[in-house]
Every structure is written in C-alpha cells, then in structure tokens.
Specification:
Shape: globular
Largest sheet: 8 strands, mixed
Helix content: 25-40%
Distance between the termini: 41 Å
Oligomer: single chain
CATH superfamily: Vaccinia Virus protein VP39
C-alpha cells in the first residue's frame, strides 16, 4: 500500500478509447489524468461486459476497479507516450517489452482472486504498472524482472509513488523466488512456451497461478492453475491472448 493512502502484452479485444482533452482546475494536470483514468476504467468495464461469457463474469470487482482508477498509469511510460497512457491498449517501454493493455491487467488481476492478506509473486515486472495495481489490493507483491534496466526503472518509479509493499527483484522469472515462497498467488506477465514447473511449486494450496502459455507468434492461451489442498492442480483455459515471450537467462 502507498504511504498515506488506503492501501508486456495485449489482449485482442475491442474498446480502444481516445484520451479526453485537458481539464484544468485548481488541481492542474493531475485532475486531467484523473478524468482520463475514469474514462479508461469505463472502457475496461465495457470490454468485460462484452466478454462476460468468456471471462465468467460481467463486472469488475470493487477492489480491481478502485485500483485501476487509483494507479497513475502515465508515470509508468516515457514522456513520449504519456498522452496515450490511458488509452485501452499496450505501449512500448523499451527492451522489446510493453506496458499491458488495461483490460488485460484488470482481467488477470480478477482471475487471481486475491485479497488484502495475500502475498503475490509477479513474474515480469516490466514497467511496474501491474505490480502497482496489485499493491492496491494485496498485502505484498514480490516482482521479478530479468532485464536489469527495467527492474531498476520500475523500482525507482514505485519508490517515487510511495509503494512500500512492493519488492522488485532482478533475476530469472522461470526460477521464481523460492526464498520467499510459498505465495498466495502467482501472475506471469509474459508468455512462456509451457508452464514453468517452479512457479507452480511455489504456489500455496488454494492459490491461483495466472499465466499466458504458448509460442511467440503462435496461439497463446490465458490459463489459470488452481492448487488443491492435496497439492494436485486444476487448469482452466480462459481465452486466446497475445503476449511478448517470457525471457529466460542467456546461456553460452
């Protein structure tokens, strides 16, 4: 949660919005961004309604809606793209990665089914935006990023925004964070060709792992794994998606 506050990738969907024009008030530009966040939330809500049969629900939970409206997405992109920050589409963040489409951030957060007592592992910090959305809802987010430059940039932004319940780690997402396991939930924000077994091992019984699985340029499926009390797992395939590939360590 942020101090003093109450607490790469895209999905093929309709509902892209144009950012509204400036609204000037005593709050200046931040009021403009607040208006744009509300418009973004409305676009995401329309997407969820349109795809209710696929997603298994027709509305966002209050916690997810509040998080989307609270997190300043424009802070997680470069100045070049800030005017587009609240469009319902992904944006580049460098190193071949993207900040996720707001709809996919919302959907994956909903699928995790997390609450205020939970600790979450995020694989693929990227810009830090997904971690910030989660941090508005859960107790703590451990986020791991293999690209050191992205990890440092995300950590800097999250510190500036006073998120005290996010820890950014630099390392191999395929290995997870065994020293901090087990986790109440695990989210993967890039697509491995198949599920990394280590991540499922680090999930608590009763927890959920949300991951897009499939080859780069081929069919990828957003998938939810639920671990049963006896350690067995159930898989649910939700929908086709398109993500950047999950990066592994460079081997000689």
């Amino acid at each position: 949660m942020k101090t003093g506050m109450k607490q790469g990738v895209w999905l093929v969907l309709m509902g892209v919005i144009m950012a509204p024009g400036p609204v000037f008030s005593s709050d200046g530009v931040e009021t403009d961004y607040a208006v744009q966040r509300r418009a973004m939330l409305e676009a995401v809500t329309r997407d969820v309604v349109r795809h209710a049969d696929t997603l298994g629900g027709s509305c966002l939970s209050p916690d997810v809606a509040r998080a989307l409206e609270s997190v300043p997405r424009h802070r997680f992109v470069s100045a070049r793209f800030q005017s587009q920050a609240y469009g319902n589409h992904p944006l580049p963040i460098g190193h071949g990665q993207t900040i996720s489409q707001p709809t996919i951030v919302a959907v994956m957060t909903e699928l995790l089914a997390v609450g205020p007592a939970d600790t979450v592992l995020e694989v693929g910090t990227g810009s830090g935006y997904q971690a910030a959305v989660l941090a508005e809802i859960v107790s703590h987010v451990h986020s791991i990023e293999i690209v050191p430059e992205l990890a440092r940039a995300a950590a800097d932004i999250l510190t500036e925004l006073a998120y005290e319940n996010i820890t950014v780690h630099t390392g191999d997402g395929y290995a997870g964070l065994p020293d901090h396991a087990p986790f109440d939930a695990v989210i993967v924000t890039a697509a491995p060709p198949e599920l990394p077994a280590a991540l499922l091992d680090q999930l608590k019984p009763g927890g959920r792992l949300v991951v897009p699985v499939g080859p780069e340029g081929g069919t990828q499926w957003l998938t939810v794994w639920t671990k049963n009390p006896d350690g067995s797992c159930q898989r649910k395939v939700v929908m086709p998606v398109r993500f950047v590939p999950m990066v592994g360590p460079v081997t000689e």
